[in-house]
Amino acid sequence: KRGAAYNTASLVSSLLGTGSKISWGYNWGATSDDLTSDLEYVPMLWCSTGDYPTDWSTNAQSAIDAGSKFLLGFNEPDNPSQCNIDASTAASAHIQYMNPFSSSAGIGAPAVTNSNVAGESLDWLEDWVSACAGQCDYDFCPVHWYNTIEAGAEDLLDFVTKASASCGTGKDIWVTEFAPNVDSPSDDQISSFLETVQDAFDNNATYSFVSRYAYFYVSDGLLVNGDAASSYGQTFAFS
User: Fold this and answer.
1) What does each C-alpha distance from 9 to 13, 56, 64, 189, 228 come to in angstroms?
2) Which fold has domain 2-238?
């Protein structure tokens, strides 16, 4: 279930090797930038605006031909500082750009935040499902979660449960970004948080709908330090 969210593919190697539980990766883009072939790459169409869709069909097909089994949709369309498109626009764009691949890959809905602002987060996702009117092909809903270490695993598990209801019957949830980093927790606190979350996602049937998850993210000072896994990077990759 565990994946590597990365910008620099070479850094991912620190989290691989004997005993690693990481099996896939994504980089918020549509080409892997030389991610090791040991991992399944999952391309993303970051947004339907600007140049993002230009080479999408070509890149998505190339990734599928190379072994990609899933495609990720728009990144935080509910967030004014990210993709930032309304649910109706996103539904039409999903039908245009994502539906054509539904017979050859698992398709992700747009990835939403855990914002508390009305109209964002699961409000937006529910609006998108409604706007799709049954015409959007999708197999899972990616969600992002950031909060305090005090809110912790309990809040994340509550959020994914609500997200599952918003996503729809029979759909999986992918947690493609998550971190309890709002209040600068210690590495030990993050490791403890991860152990709780990973046990729930991997072993608790209550959360079997969470089919993939990726901690934020493979970067020097976060999941890796230099050319080695950080203390909680070790927890995420190997525990």
Assistant:
1) 8, 20, 19, 27, 14
2) TIM Barrel (3.20.20)
